[in-house]
Design goal:
The chain is α+β, with helices and mostly antiparallel strands. The chain has helices at residues 11-22, 31-44, 90-104, 119-127; strands at residues 4-7, 48-54, 57-66, 73-81, 109-115, 131-140, 143-151.
Length: 152
C-alpha cells in the first residue's frame, strides 16, 4: 500500500532512490555505469523522479527527463515497482503522476522503451493508453527494444 508519492527534491532522496533502483539491476549493457550517471543527473536536476513509499521505504519509482531531441516529449528512463508491492496500484499511481507532471509542464507525449520480451511492462503500458511506436536496437544489437508512446 502506498503511504506517499513524492517528486524527488533533495540529495538525501536521490541516495534513497539510487539504493532502491540498485537492488533491481536491469539487463542492459553498462547498466551500472548508467546508474551512476543517472544519480549525478538526478542530483543536478537533468533527470527527475517520482517515488512511492510504504513505511518510509521506497516501493516504486519512475525516473524521467525531457527528450534530448524532442522538447515536447517526456522520456521515461527507468520505471520499477518492488516485487513485494506489485499489483497494488503503485505503478498505475506513478504513471498517473507522470502524466499529470507532463501535462502541467507543457509536454505533448510520453515515451518509454523496454525489452521486447518484457511482456508485463508492455501490457501495463498498453492498458494505460500507450501505443507501439517502433522497435529498435537501442542498447544491444541482438536484443531489440519496444518503444511505446502516449499522447497527453
Amino acid at each position: 500500500m502506498i503511504e506517499q508519492i513524492k517528486l524527488l527534491s533533495n540529495p538525501e532522496e536521490v541516495q534513497k532512490l539510487y539504493d532502491f533502483v540498485k537492488q533491481y539491476p536491469l539487463d542492459y549493457k553498462d547498466y551500472s555505469i548508467w546508474l551512476e550517471k543517472c544519480r549525478r543527473q538526478l542530483e543536478i536536476g537533468d533527470k527527475r523522479a517520482f517515488y512511492a513509499t510504504n513505511k518510509g521505504s521506497i516501493i516504486g519509482s519512475v525516473i524521467f527527463q525531457r527528450h534530448r531531441e524532442e522538447d515536447s516529449v517526456l522520456e521515461v528512463k527507468n520505471f520499477r515497482v518492488s516485487e513485494k508491492h506489485s499489483r497494488e496500484g503503485v505503478g498505475s499511481t506513478l504513471e498517473l503522476m507522470l502524466c499529470s507532471y507532463g501535462r502541467s509542464n507543457g509536454f505533448k507525449r510520453i515515451r518509454v522503451d523496454t525489452h521486447h520480451d518484457n511482456f508485463a511492462m508492455i501490457q501495463f503500458l498498453i492498458k494505460r493508453g500507450y501505443f507501439l511506436e517502433s522497435e529498435e536496437n537501442l542498447y544491444v544489437s541482438v536484443k531489440p527494444e519496444v518503444i511505446l508512446a502516449k499522447n497527453l
